[in-house]
Fold each of these.
Amino acid sequence: MARYIGPKSKIARRFGEAIFGADKVLSKKNYPPGQHGNNRRRKTSEYGLMLAEKQKAKYTYGVLEKQFRNMFEKAARTSGITGEVLLQSLECRLDNIVFRLGIAPTRAAARQLVGHRHIVVDGEVVGIPSYSVKPGQIVGVREKSKSLEVIADALAGFNHSKYPWLEWDENTKSGKLLHKPERADIPENIKEQLIVELYSK
């Protein structure tokens, strides 16, 4: 199960955003990493901006290059606005749905819960983080995993109403994907059009 395991704070500083979740280092060092990170930098080229946007999306959703490229090509073949379709595909990944439902505090933690077979889809255990959840499917916590402290802590006080495309059932500790999210509802600060332009070159 390939995933990024490098330094996360360095990546967050590069983009100036807490893309892996709350990161205290940004309040102390709000400038890019490296020896010259705090100096004035040259203006980034148009290509550099597009590349940075793609990298930000990859790191945000925990997807590696080949998988991300495949998702883009599939989105390009699908009817609709390519950039929005790509973001919707990323949002419908099982690990991201688990994160959005508040079952895990970060996407990395959600990926681990899925990989360790604590998550069920329509009552069946699914251990593939990249599994694409379809509208109408129900994602929940496996019965014998509901007492896990990490899940209870993550769900404590979590506001489920901030994601209108998901419906949470507190009694069963499960959520339903009502529909694919609209672009305006996705909170990630990603300029998907730059990614489309990058791959279109």
Amino acid sequence: MVREVTTLDRLSGGRFTLGVGLGHPPDCEFEFFGEDPSLKIRAEKLDESLEILDGLWSGNPFSFSGKHYHMDTVTFKPRPIQKPRVPIWCAGWWPKKAPFRRAARYDGAFPLGEKGKLKPEDFSDILDYVKEHRKTKGRFDLILLGRSRGISKHDSWIEDYEDAGASWFVELIMGADYDEYAKRISLGPPSQ
């Protein structure tokens, strides 16, 4: 994955963002392929993988020895364009806290509602929680997943989430009218 993400970062001129998470549902994402479906094990592996990515993307000699992964010293070249590395957004089910402690170490959180749709107040709570655990300064993105209402209609409900800290909106297209979305995409990004 290190090489693939670096390639995408370079091809995009330094605009790539890596989204990570434990995967869901485990029976489709992991068990069919012989992987351990345990949340704890998958979380440990993800944390180690992210540490390895950070180390390799530094461009300096790097080795790793963890519970799940081991790696002799290697220097990875070329580095991604973005520094200190490609931004990483971590997905997680709110109100579970562990995924958001992980996100606090990186560049963004992609929250999903464990008990249904998240409210703007949830986004405020997530951002407060991340700020408590964040050790670095700099940009931190909070991503809202949803379905907007139409081509020309302004979605004021999105502004409520923006006011609560959401910095990106990702359009949900599963189960949607794809012809409608094709029309919307052809119009380009909405203007304010």
